[in-house]
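Model it.
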Amino acid sequence: MYSNKKGIILGAGIFFLIMGAFFLYSQSNTFEFVKTTTSGVIDVVLPGAPRRLTQPPLPQKGIYISAWTQSNSQRIKELIQLINATELNTVVIDVKDATGKFSYKVDIPLAEKIGANSELKVKNIDGLINQFHDNNIYVIGRVQVFQDPVLAKGRPDIAIKDSRDKNLWKDKQGLEWLDPSSKVAWQYAADIAKDMVKHGFDEVNYDYIRFPADGDISRLSFPFWSADKPKYELVGNFFAYLNQELKDAPLAKSADVFGLTSWRAFDFNFDLNIGQRLVDALPYFDYVSPMVYPLHYPVGFNGIKNPSEKPYEIVNGSLKMAQALLATTSYKAIIRPWLQDFNLNGVVYDKNKVRAQIKAANDAGINGWLLWNSSSRYTQDALLPQ
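Modeled.
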């Protein structure tokens, strides 16, 4: 009997030793502690989960990839081949676009409640980001902020109304907008970036950070914004809010602004009537990206009959002013413009026009840039070999 008990005890001891060893092994393979970030935050990463690049390529030279293109594995493969064959090293992928819906499932209660997770294009965002990072490609996630039909319909109390009938106001594209004063909208924008950290994005890029610019703006009715305050003051406060909310988030921050904010950088009374001034963005973002697409400039601008035909002059003139303003400050922001790689109004943007914009940026002292094409098709001949 004693011998049997001894055998049982010995067997149990061996069993628990094995289980303990297995537990320790499983734990060591379940959690990986990554080096402390610059903000002092230690990331805990699950196996296979993506993490940001430890040494992001500089300067960033990137292309925009739409939500629909993200869902096409063959197109992603082709775009990675393009990047690896050329000077490109960066992608900007949609997180939340003009539809107000997310490309992948975000873990935000408000997004789930209003149906923003209802039409996912990317089932495995971690795998997609790993695919880019495996090729040393910097990944920027683009977030449209105040143009958001889903949140406007889900929370009409924070949306812009039509003063005529009190229904939701719509722009020329038939899309609804949020009141830029809404603190709910501000927190939503910050929460999206915090969720992006979990998926290994290297940077959050905020777009449509402004008041509406098209449609019948005479009928805009705001639930919160008071017209006795300048629009640029409100937008600047939003930038400061994001900076505070994301101060410990281990990813870079960037903002898109219209190109005219660069050309008129020293006119501090000029905000295009949408609340955008370059000077307000510089203190709060790592990168500021003026959209210096020549087509954005009106006919006859600065004596140029058709700005779309003069890409060098438009881009260089805009970016020299942006650089001049930045030089008067101690801000660490980097000007990284959006350039045009698409045709419009009968003007074909071939390799010469695309390259002219890149040269214009270089001549203004800017080496990093992003190319925009809504269908994610780019002019390879305009790009230098790797």
